[in-house]
Design brief:
Blueprint (H helix, E strand, L loop, with lengths): L48 H24 L2 H6 L1
Length: 81
């Protein structure tokens, strides 16, 4: 904002209730009511330790297979030339 401009006036008001979400201006829309999750909705559990171990082993095996294929087709020598 340049120095020759001033922001417009804003009227701030209080609803008087500390529990209510404060509105900053009179023209602000009222806050949306909070929605509670359904009672039968359980938080999603993270992957188990066994699943993480299987994924890690699969990653290491695929890296080894890719390295073996690269050596079999002499790909490292192509990079040096």
């Amino acid at each position: 904002m340049s120095h020759d401009q001033r922001p417009g006036r804003v009227r701030v008001f209080s609803s008087g209730s500390p529990a209510a979400t404060p509105q900053r201006r009179r023209t602000d829309p009222p806050p949306a009511p909070a929605v509670a999750p359904p009672a039968d909705a359980a938080p999603a559990a993270g992957p188990s330790l066994r699943a993480l171990a299987v994924r890690g082993a699969l990653f290491l095996v695929s890296c080894a297979a890719g390295g073996a294929l690269a050596e079999a087709y002499h790909l490292p020598e192509m990079l040096v030339r």
